[in-house]
Amino acid sequence: MARPDLKFGKKLKKYGAVDFNACYNCGTCTAVCALASETDSFPREMVRYSVLGLDEEIKGSLKPWLCYYCGECSTYCPQEAQPGELMMSLRRYLISRYDWTGLSGLLCRSLAAYAAAFLAVVAGLMGLFFFSGWGQKEWMHYGHLFEMAAIGGVFAFILLPNIVRMWYFTVWKRKKTLRMKTYLLALPELLLHMFTQKRTLSCNDERDNTLWWFEHLVLVLGYLGLLFATVFLDWFASTHPVVVAAGYVLSAVVFVVTFDFVIRRIRKRSEKSVFSHPSDWFFVIWLFLMGISAFGVRLLVDLGALAGHFWLYLLHLTVLVQWALIIVPFGKWTHFLYRSFAMYFDRIVKMESPAA
Amino acid sequence: MAAVERLSFDALVVGGGIAGIEAAINLGDNGLRVLLVEKDLTLGGKMIMLSKVFPTLDCAACITTPKISEVARHPNVTIFTNTEVKSIQKQDMHYFKASLVRHPRYVDESACTGCQLCEEACPAVVPDQYQYDLVGRKAAYIPFSIASPRVATIDMDHCVLCGACERVCPPQCIDFTQEPAECQIIMKTVIVATGLQLFDPARIERFRSGHAKNVITAMQMERLLAPTRPYNHVLRPGDGKAPDKIAYVLCVGSRDRTVGNPICSQICCMYSIKQAQLLMGALPMADVTIYYINIRSYGKGFEEFYEQAKGMGVNFVKGKVGQITEKENGNLVLRYEDIRSGRLKEAEHDLVVLSVGSLADPDASGFFTDGRWEQDEFHFPRQKDLFFNPALSSIKGVFLAGTTSCPMDIPDTILSAGAASMEAIRYIKQSALGI
After folding, report:
1. Among candidates A110, A62, A86, which has minimal Cα distance to A8?
2. Is there a single domain that holds both residue B209 and residue B349?
3. Residue of A nearest to B338 (CA)
4. Which of B178, B207, B226 is the last residue before a domain boundary?
5. Cis peptide before B55, with omega less than 30 degrees from 0?
6. Pick from A110, A115, A76: nearest CA to A92
7. ipTM score of the complex?
């Protein structure tokens, strides 16, 4: 028997939820949702869970990840209960529930914690700058080492355990299956959604939505490419003309697209950009700063002017450390993994369910 | 324009629907000289268009016509139909001044016998607004058989000026030279009974009203079910097929903040249940499904009426329809969440009735030009004392009758008209005594 938790709503508001208590259960949101189906009916179910505070049901549900926020539910909700933004805040909430360290939740709930974490990184790097006595060469060398260490460390200690937790809540608790065949057969789903986000396209047929999907796809590929170029091909130190040119293009893609995303959030023209949580702002702005500072650093390298403008590298490194230690493990970055793993897990659960 | 006509009355009643008629009779019976003004060609308002009334299932036309005939023959009541109120102003402490425009019918009202020969002769056919566009009418026409006054009108917007009506009219009463006439009225009190405005469902694009032919409004269904109905049978307008899977979509344009009308319209649940029961009689083999958010059967006998519909086999589904898609054969696919199971579902119907909500009539606020007329947040006239004196408007001496002030059903409208009449009489007596 489910026990309503009336304080849950207040908690959810810190994750960005607005007005969902206004819901009078008409089901318009579900009925206008292009992604909802008879087997996956949302968002009203999630609104209901949220109003009643059914934490276990929310934690075990993949439905928040099945939504790609076209915002039609919010447009047509007769009570203006903003179901689209509720789904968004549930995704933030789920990120915090999957995270074993609890830091995701802390950062999401408190802007002060976010700021403190960012400042701590700045302070640490400044300390290192004054006390290490490193020159430009050491900084760039250790900076590159940091990138590799951060990727490995964050993945091994934070992201991997969190994905296992997600699997435990959403698959194991419901189906208790370990059949290798299912896991293998469902695997294409993971890769498909990770690299195409194609569900966005079924969201609604508006032109702007298609454009948004395209920009997002370019951004994802640009970001991954830039990551690969800087970390594994050592773009900043590389002399290979293809690597150098590719790095310029990829970093430009990152800052140009994120600039547009920031503008969208300022203009609030579409439902999905009306509400912006601090974690959304940090995500797009830091990605923008990272792209543009990387571009600038390499430009200085090519102009032979880095020594005179070394502050830019330090700025880039600061942004990078904040990104790698805060936003990637505990911030919005994780939606890259959870969204695609949600599609994978959802397929597994469906394959293990008796044919409906 | 001809010379301005000047008249004086004790009371002006604006609106010749059931509220205005009731108020005019009440005032007239109490010895007041009343002018009843109706902008339409006939008295009767929305009630006379209805099939039957809930929850008694009396024939609406049969119970409206005696009232109309009573007011039409009342010695103390003067009736101006086809007349528009331009402005109402307070002239001094005891009198109001109104400016009216009497639009021409292009027919001499006193001479017309209602023989309908002009209608037969007229070659111009246009959609009949009194049948909610289900069928056509002529440009020379009588609104409907029980119209009051039952006289012909030439619809100048569509008349082709062929003169056919003029040639066949036995009393020679057609007069194309008529012009709008201005009229100044002095009176002591005003009752506003302009009624409500039904929500235009074309505003909600996803319900396909106006695009899909078999998506109709509840008012069109009233006409299909009325004794004086257009096809003499319940048929769907798209292809004339007798429908056998009919859906009702409730709360279209009411309880909906996205269209600016968050309140319940109070009548749609019940009129839909009434229509469903009548459909069970008219089409015994048909399935009728009502999609609702909540059924609000709040009045005396209403819950029993709802239970009776369920007992008759009307299917009630909790869940608001989100989207309607038209199929090639004219059938409609309704997408909704079945709230009981929590699942998204689709259902095919061959006729969809949109149970539209009611809005404030903007006319009610247009007359008062001196700025003292106040509205509430829902654009209805503000009721100054909602609890103890609901008929009071924000202007002293102006009273509200019926659905002018908020959505309500017919019995409540009659009560409200009674309250407004009583307040108007008290106001006149008190001002005569100098209170």
Report:
1. A86
2. yes
3. A27
4. B178
5. yes
6. A110
7. 0.90
pLDDT at A225: 96
Q: Which DSSP category does B316 fall into?
A: E
Q: Tell me: the pLDDT tens digits for B306-353?
A: 999 999 999 999 999 999 999 999 999 999 999 999 999 999 999 999
Long-range residue pairs from B125-131, CB within 8 A, at least 24 positions apart, any chain: B126/B155, B126/B158, B128/B230, B130/B49, B131/B223, B131/B230
Q: Is the pLDDT of residue B414 over 70?
A: yes
**What average pLDDT does range A336-347 have in this prediction?**
95
Taking an 8 Å cut-off on Cβ atoms, the answer to whether A27 and B255 are in contact is no
Of A26, A36, A80, the CB nearest to B344: A36
Sign of CA dihedral A59, A63, A66, A71: negative
Tokens representing B362? 């903007």
Q: How far apart are CA A20 and CA A51, in angstroms?
A: 7
Q: Give first-to-last CA distance, chain A, whole Å.
A: 25
Dihedral (Cα; B208, B214, B215, B217), 10-degree rounding: 140
User: Taking CB atoms and an 8 Å limit, are A78 and B255 in contact across chains?
Assistant: yes
The verdict on B231 and B295 lying in the same domain is yes
Whether the pTM exceeds 0.90: the reply is yes
Rounded to whole angstroms, the Cα distance separating B154 from B166 reads 11
Encoded tokens for A193: 């959604």
Cα-based distances in Å from A220 to A226, A248, A260, B316: 10, 16, 14, 48
Cβ contacts of B261 on chain A, cutoff 8 Å: none
State the Cα–Cα distance between residues A294 and A238, nearest whole angstrom: 14
Region B241-268: what's the mean pLDDT? Answer: 96
Give the amino acid at A235: W
The answer, yes or no, to whether residue B435 has pLDDT greater than 70, is no
Question: How far is Cα B143 from Cα B137, in angstroms, rounded to an integer?
Answer: 9
Q: CA–CA separation, A172 vs A89, rounded Å?
A: 24
| A222 class by beta-carbon count within 10 Å (0-12 exposed, 13-18 middle, 19+ buried) | buried
State pLDDT tens for residues A186-218: 999 999 999 999 999 888 767 788 899 999 999
Residue B220 and residue B124 share a domain: no
Chain B residues in contact with A45 by the CB 8 A cut-off are: 342
CA geometry: angle B254, B46, B179, nearest 5 deg = 120
Closest CA–CA distance from residue A220 to any residue of chain B (Å): 32
Residues B341 and B331 in one domain: yes
**Domain encompassing residue B171:** 104-178
For chain A, which domains are there? 8-98 (1.10.1060.10), 111-352 (no CATH)
Which residue of B lies nearest to A46 if distances are taken between CA atoms?
B342
User: Same domain for B171 and B285?
Assistant: no
Task: Report residue A107 as tokens.
Answer: 């950062």
**Lookup result for tokens 């009393």:** B171
Instruction: Determine contact, residues A70/A271, Cβ cutoff 8 Å.
Output: yes
